[in-house]
Amino acid sequence: MNTHTDLSSELIPDDAAFERMQQQLFDRIDAEEAFPIVQHVVPRASRKRLPKRAKRRRWVGLIAAAAVVGVTTTLVVTGALGPRAATAEAAEFLRGAAAATITSADPVVGPGEYLAVETTEAAMSFSDGYAYEDSQRVVMYVPHDRAGHWVLERQWLSPGKIYGDAERAQADIDSFWSATGREDVKLFDAQGGKFIMFGDRSGAELAALPTDPDALLTYLYEHAQGSSSKDEAVFVRVADLLRDGLVPAPLRAAMYKAIAQVPGVYLSDAEVNLDGHTGVAISRKDPSRSYTDQIIIDPTTGLLIGMRSQLVEAEGLLPAGTVLTLTAVKTSVVGEAPAGPYREQKPSG
After folding, report:
1. Rounded to an integer, what distance in angstroms lies between the CA atom of residue 349 and that of residue 345?
2. What is the DSSP letter of 318?
3. pLDDT per position as a tens digit, 111-121
4. Average of pLDDT values for 220-243?
5. Strands 265-267 and 199-200: what pairing?
6. 182, 195, 292, 309: least buried by Cβ within 10 Å?
7. Exposed, middle or buried, 129 (CB in 10 Å: 0-12/13-18/19+)?
């Protein structure tokens, strides 16, 4: 359960490409702060995390978790540091991904069937003198009739690599996992995707988004909030919408064409393999950050297969190249959803 797996990357840094980070990477947060997808409930006296941006999910360390759940994850990164303006190479790839996503049919969910959106996610847990990778698996079962009965399945996975004081970190990990039922699969349900604990997962807002790329870009710049810059907010908002697996192909294509116009977007010289799916990382680094944000797209189908953030310079206990956030996304059509019993939900926050 406590097997540690190294994260490795091959970086070609360019110190002149970016300013030094203008704010501290980590802010103190409460031990039981709720996240948009799940509530992180590991008991801690204090926790640190990346600066809050938009509605970004703060999950890290999938590579370590992958060894536990049988996911093959290979990362080869040679261009993690990108330009301050969108590149022609990124724009060309995103236009190609848009074309691919239009020609690739979305999964067809028939009556009585469910779209299963599986994400393997993780979070870097911090305390004084150490940090380690937490991870979890979440499956959302979306019914043919979106107004019907939704089910969310969640399971904690074994922690990954430890940074800093390994003895104290291991004691913290052992304490967390000593609770009865910690490894159990937990089920939650909601009508119409409106979960009490996890918020509205129905994707109803997608219907209001324009499918014209320029109109969509204008809308995003007007409405995306919560980041250190509007450019970052737009990129992160698109990534968050894509990760839920509910964006229809025409809108997904418009999103790719829209972010191709966002300053700072570039095509990493990267090949990412997540559970047998190979993708290309489209990246952006805000000048105020010490890490890049990336969305990982299957160039053949145009589907999002993952997201990640990665340090490009050392921060505290974490060396340059550390993967700060990584989410693998898979979708499939299944004949049924788990039948329960379902857990009682309390409002997050």
Report:
1. 12
2. B
3. 999 999 999 98
4. 89
5. unpaired
6. 182
7. exposed
Torsion of CA 160, 162, 163, 168, to 10 degrees: 150
Sorted by where each begins, the domain ranges of the chain are: 15-334
Secondary structure, 3-state, 1-69: CCCCCCCCCCCCCCHHHCCCCCCCCCEEECCCCECCCCECCCCCCCEEECCCCCCCCCCCCHHHHHHHH
* DSSP of 164-199: E-HHHHHHHHHHHHTSTTTTS-EEEEEETTEETTTE
> What DSSP state is assigned to residue 81?
S
Q: How many alpha carbons fall within 13 Å on the CB side of residue 109?
A: 21
Q: How confident is the model at residue 325 (pLDDT cuts 50, 70, 90)?
A: confident
Which has the closest alpha carbon to 73: 9, 116, 27, 126? 9
Burial class (CB in 10 A: 0-12, 13-18, 19+), 112: exposed
Tokens of 246: 């509910």
Q: Does residue 16 register a pLDDT over 70?
A: no
Token pair in block for residue 172: 């913290």
* Helix, coil or strand: residue 242: helix
In b/e form, how buried is each residue of 272-308, taking b as 16+ CB within 10 angstroms? Answer: bbbbebebbbbbbbbbbbbbbbbbbbbeebbbbbbbb
Amino acid letter at 204?
Answer: A
Closest by CA position to 234, among listed 224, 222, 247: 224
Cβ-in-10-Å burial (0-12, 13-18, 19+) of 39 comes to middle
User: Token pair of 266, please?
Assistant: 């570039």
